[in-house]
Amino acid sequence: MDWSLVLISQGIESTIEHSEEFGWGLIVSDEELERAKIAIENYNAENVRWPWRRRIQREIVFDWGALAWVFLIGLFFYLQSLGTNLREAGLMDAQAVSRGEWWRLSTAIFLHANIGHFAANAGIGFFLLGLTMGRFGTGIGLFAAYLAGVLGNVATWLAFENHLSLGASGLVMGCVGLLAAQAFSWRKHPQALRYFLTGIAGGVMLFALLGLSPGSDVLAHAGGFVGGFLIGIALLLAPKLAQNTTANVVAGILFTTATVLTWWLALAKS
After folding, report:
1. Is 99 exposed, middle or buried (0-12, 13-18, 19+ CB in 10 A)?
2. CA distance 147 to 231
3. Model confidence pLDDT, tens digit, residues 193-235
4. Closest Cα partner for 36 from 12, 53, 60?
């Protein structure tokens, strides 16, 4: 059916037929055969699927590529446990940021206080980041969540002169904000208001459940949630971006570059 729509868009008439010997197929005229093949080949080349993206329901896709992020923060936690100076070098220290060590807004996302802190962020983050990457694209979803986490740390830096924090919870709350922003994607649906209100309410309730726990960095969580929500709305302006392979590769490169650069600066300073 997808291929038949592709051919229709190119003005090529086709018929969908089924046979016991060959299964489902498209019938086109001999005159249009070569042009039809080229159109379908171009369509397949432009819509290469990331093999770890799996559809849960019709509108819900989960990207198992989020496991790579779990592995990454797990690697940093392991390096911390070896007694390295990663914690001191990458901790979100408001005074240090004010002195020019801006990279701490990023590096703190990869650090955790203890095994419980890491396990909570890795477990919940894997699920939410997988949904975010499934909705917005593998590279784009990851980079958007990362930016939301940075914005969460920016919020705490602007609000407090003396503040120390670390952890990926701002990024996790950013995923909640990004997913909540999907409520705006139903604006053309006959029941748009219903979907909008339930989507926003669900996002706010999930934020309250996960982001307002006692002893947590509430402001970083709120900053991540709001940042993710605003980024999500911006991404909805380009709905086809999630399927754009080039855009996702570029976003993945930006995430990798930002991670390497900020940690290089942090370790060089220490």
Report:
1. exposed
2. 9
3. 555 556 556 556 665 655 556 556 778 888 898 999 999 999 9
4. 12
Q: How far is residue 48's CA from residue 252's CA, in Å, rounded to a whole number?
A: 16
- pTM beyond 0.85: no
- Tokens representing residue 55 in the block: 């559809």
Q: Which two tokens stand for residue 19?
A: 């046979």
β-partners of residue 54 are 62
Helical axes 218-236 vs 138-159, angle rounded to 10°: 140
Q: Are 110 and 75 in contact (CB under 8 A)?
A: no
Among residues 60, 227, 46, 241, the alpha carbon closest in space to that of 134 is found at 60
Measure the CA–CA gap between 232 and 206, rounded to whole angstroms: 16
CA dihedral 251, 236, 182, 56 (to 10 degrees): -60
- Residues 39-55: pLDDT tens digits? 888 877 776 665 665 66
| Distance, first Cα to last Cα, the chain | 58
Residues 155/220, Cβ–Cβ less than 8 Å = yes
Query: Residue-wise over 30-57: b if at least 16 C-beta within 10 A, else e?
Result: eebeeebeebbeebeeeeeebebbeeee
Give residues with Cβ within 8 angstroms of 180, minimum separation 6: 199, 200, 202, 203, 204, 206, 207, 225, 228, 229, 232
